[in-house]
Each structure stands twice: as structure tokens, then as C-alpha cells.
Amino acid sequence: MSTDVIERTEKTTTINYFDGSSKQVTILDEEIPYPDGKLIVSRTDKQGIITHCNQSFVDMSGYTEEEIIGQPHSILRHPDMPRAAFKDLWDTLKRSEKWHGYVKNLRKDGSYYWVYAIAIPNIRKGEIMGYTSVRRKPSRTQINECIELYANMMQEEQ
Amino acid sequence: MSYTMTVSPDFSPDHIAGWYVFNTYLQRQLNIPIHLELYNNFDEQRKAIANNEIDLIFANPYDASMLVREKNFTAVAAPENSSDEAIIAVKEGSQIAHIEDLKEGTRIVTTDDPDVNMMGMIMLEPADLNKENTSTTIVDSYPLVAKQLIQGNADIGFFLDESFDSLSKFVKEQLSILIRSQIFVIRHVMLAGPKLEDKHQDIKNVLLNMLNDEKGPGVLNSLGISSWENQEHEDTEFMIDLMDTLVG
Ligand SMILES: Cc1cc2nc3c(=O)[nH]c(=O)nc-3n(C[C@H](O)[C@H](O)[C@H](O)COP(=O)(O)O)c2cc1C
Prior knowledge:
The complex is a heterodimer of chains A (158) and B (248). By secondary structure, chain A is α+β, with helices and mostly antiparallel strands. Chain A has four helices and seven strands. Chain A has helices at 55-61, 65-68, 83-94, 140-157, and strands at 10-16, 22-28, 40-44, 50-53, 99-106, 112-124, 127-136. In chain A, the strands form two sheets. Chain A has a five-stranded antiparallel beta sheet with strand order 4-3-7-6-5. Chain A has a two-stranded antiparallel ribbon with strand order 1-2. Chain A starts with 9 loop residues before the first strand and ends with a helix. The relative contact order of chain A is 0.18. Residues 1-6 of chain A have low confidence and may be disordered. Chain B is of the alpha/beta class and 248 residues long. Chain B has two domains: 3-82 and 185-247, 3-Layer(aba) Sandwich (D-Maltodextrin-Binding Protein, domain 2); 86-180, Periplasmic binding protein-like II (D-Maltodextrin-Binding Protein, domain 2). Chain B contains ten helices and eleven strands. In chain B, helix 3 crosses helix 10. The longest helix of chain B has 15 residues, at 16-30. The relative contact order of chain B is 0.21. The mean pLDDT of chain B is 95. The A-B interface holds A 34, 36-39, 41, 43, 54, 98, 116, 118-120, 122, 124, 132-134, 136-142 and B 99-100, 122-123, 125-128, 179-185, 237-238, 241-242, 244-246. The structure holds flavin mononucleotide. Flavin mononucleotide binds next to helix 3, strand 5, strand 6 and strand 7 of chain A. The site of flavin mononucleotide has 19 residues of chain A, from helix 3, strand 5, strand 6 and strand 7.
């Protein structure tokens, strides 16, 4: 009889946020697959505070809707994501343009999921009133390319 | 002044008569002349929109953006609890069981329905498929999409879920669903144009009151709609923002 040993490497890391704050998070080396046929949707106000999210967002993040609304998206920030990716996201949105890219997101329990994310500014009467992001299922090829790319970017950011 | 109403060409053929009945009902309720003009395809309809020939339209979400942002249309209502979802199907017995099994060169058969094609192509992304490395055949109707699949002329077919569900049992038994979208927020909407501006509220009131009106429920039934629900301007803006993230 053989037993499958599922190895769950667990470690604790400190994430430093852009605003100077930091948080201790548990990181599990366990990927949760993106649900087929679904979109993960959220909207924020002008400051990037989440005002709406759909059921897939709730399911994939592992938080309840109450825990999500009122928070910034950095609650999903994974320590393997380079800072430059999010700087590019914000710079692009502030120019009133559409941003797209691959993002590794952190779940409440420390595991992760990859998404292909598109974010746009919500422009009403010529003014940015908030932001919307829609994520879809990425391909394995694209994820593998990003794993390498982001690791290199992280090294440069050290 | 007379007005022109049209319907997104992806409406089910079963409901053609229903739209005429609905138009008669609207004219009586609003006491204005409305002519119903149906187009065979999206191209013809878009030309009429570009020429400002349309005043009221039950629009495909894909066209809603252009109608609202470029042609100053306003949403008045949308069918309650309905969303446009796409299905990708294969021939029953196909070796393909998952999207990720699909390879470059995949042959797609579909209609000219723009939102279904958009959702279908998005659902192929996890297999690294796109317009460049697949081939697409456009046919005139969903039963023809099914026929092409069954005859082996294509590997996968895109369907609007409603249209797939309404295929005959015999046809459905020869197909198998690979994936069904669960997007929920993309749907057809009734939009009124600038020439009807002073009537927007009246049109909204008529639609939202149909269930309470003596003739209303029969008319709704012939359209295959359970009831209309209010669509605020911001609901439409949000849907358009979503479409913007999905298109191109
Ligand atoms: C609409 C929108 C969606 C976003 N989605 C995510 C996301 O899914 N995951 C994430 O880590 N950051 C997301 N961000 C970026 C975060 O706001 C933040 O910049 C990022 O998590 C990095 O954290 P930091 O800026 O505190 O360093 C999003 C931002 C916007 C405006």
C-alpha cells in the first residue's frame, strides 16, 4: 500500500505595503485552480477601496463579502508579485487607459491563484469616478512565463 | 413624428410574432406611431444605427456601448433575471473533454452574434487559442452551428445558452457541452434614443407595469420574457465598463 504525501510547505512572510504599513502573512505553496467559465469582478472608488465584488471574487479570495468591502485590493497582494507590476497598473489607470496583466493573488488561507486581470477607470462625465477589474482564466504557458519574469523582477527590486 | 424600433438580430425566431405584438401594445400604451424594423444580421442593423434610423432597440450588450456612448441612447429596462451566457460544445464522443485539450488549428463554427463570439474566444484563452491560431466559419443560425458540428465540419461550436437549450432533444443528444459561461452581468437591454427623449420615462413606466396590466402578461409571454426590470443609467455604465474590459 502506498500513501500519497502531499507536501504543503508553509512559511510566514512580511508584506510591506506602498503606504508604509506591513503585515505578517502565512504563505502556502498551494495553487487553487481558476474556475472555468467565470469572471472575477470588483469595483473600487477613486482611492482604490473596494465597493463591489461578485461571488467568484468572494469564493476565490477566501474572505467573506463583509471582509472585502471597504478594503484596498492589496489584501490580495502576494509576496511573489513585483512592486513594478502594480506601479504600472496604477500609472496606466491614472492616464485613463486600460491595464492588463497576469497576477498571482493571495487567498486568506495563504494559498494562491493566478488570474489574467484587466482593469479600467470608470469615467463619468469626463472624470475618473472609480476603477473596475475583471479577471479571467490564464493559460498555463502564460503563467509559467510570468513565474520566471516576476522572479527576475523581484531580484532587481531587492 | 413616427419612430422606429428594432431588435438585436440574435432574438429567437420563435419570438418574431411576439415582437410585432409587443410593438402594437407599446403604440397603444404610449399613443405614438412606432414602426418595427427587423434586420437579418448585425451589420445591417449597425448601418441603420449609424444613419440615425433607430429610436428604440432591444440591444445586444456588445452594441449597447456604442449606442450609449456614441449615439446618446439611454437604457430603460432589461428582462428580469436574464443574462447572456455562452456555451462551447463538441460532437458527442469527441476526444476533447476540456478546453485545455484544444490545440492550434482548432476549427470553430459560430454565428455573427458578437457577445457570444466574444465570450467564446475568452473561454478559449486557457488553451492559448486566439483568432490567429484558429479558423472560424460563420453560419446563419444556431441549428446550423449544431449541424456543422455533427457533420464533423468543425471541432467546436459557440452557442448562446438559450439557443443551445432550445435545440431539439435529438440534436442535443449528438452534442456535448465543453463549457458554459457563468458571467451573470452581461445582458440585452432596451435602449431609447435621443429622438424619444421626452418619452423615456413613459416607456419605462409601460414596460415596468406590464405584469399588472390586463394585456401585458400575454405580450411578455410571446416575447419569452418573464418581466422587465428597471435599468438605471449607472447599471448600464457598469455593464459597458465590463464590456470594455472584455473587448479587444
Ligand atoms: C481595479 C483594481 C484592481 C486591482 N486588483 C488587484 C488584485 O487582484 N491583486 C492585487 O494584488 N492588487 C490589485 N490591485 C492593486 C492594488 O491596489 C495594490 O496596488 C497592490 O496590491 C500592491 O499593494 P501596494 O500598492 O500596497 O504595494 C488592483 C488595483 C485596482 C485599481
